Amino acid sequence: MKENISKFKAFSQVLEEQEITLVRDHAHILQINTGLLCDLACKHCHLDAGPHRLEVMDRQTMDDVIAFAKRGHFSMVDITGGAPELVPDLDYLLRGLRPLTDKLMLRSNLTALSDADRESLLELMIELKVALVASFPSTSQSQTDAQRGAGVMDRSIAMLKRLNGLGYGQPESGLELNLVANPAGAFLPADQMAMEQKFKRDAERKWGIVFNGLFTFANVPLGRFRVWLEKSGNLDGYLLKLANAFNPCTLDGLMCKSLISVAWDGTVYDCDFNLAASIPIGGQHKHVSELLEPPGPGELIATGDHCYACTAGSGFT
Question: Which side of the chain, N or C, has fewer Cβ within a 10 Å radius?
Answer without folding.
Answer: N
